[in-house]
Specification:
This protein is an all-alpha fold and about 60 residues long. The protein has a domain of about 40 residues: Arc Repressor Mutant (Orthogonal Bundle), CATH 1.10.1220. About 60% of the residues lie in helices and about 0% in strands. It is built from 3 helices and no strands.
Length: about 60
């Protein structure tokens, strides 16, 4: 298999992520976070997909 000639640099990826995404931070009890991470791992689901779905569901369910 031929080697890739180019690689996307970390700086390029960082600039794209900064332009495209925002971060949401929450302070939660350590035991809750550990349980959440383990369940995501067990089910093969990304943590961010769970948070994204919860936010989308919240936005759909509340009145403007």
């Amino acid at each position: 298999m031929p080697e890739r000639k180019t690689k996307t640099s970390s700086a390029v990826k960082r600039r794209y992520n900064q332009k495209t995404y925002s971060a949401v931070t929450a302070m939660l009890p350590k035991d809750l976070v550990a349980e959440f991470k383990q369940k995501c791992l067990d089910k093969g689901i990304s943590q961010s997909s769970i948070v994204k779905k919860a936010i989308e569901d919240f936005l759909k369910s509340t009145d403007s």
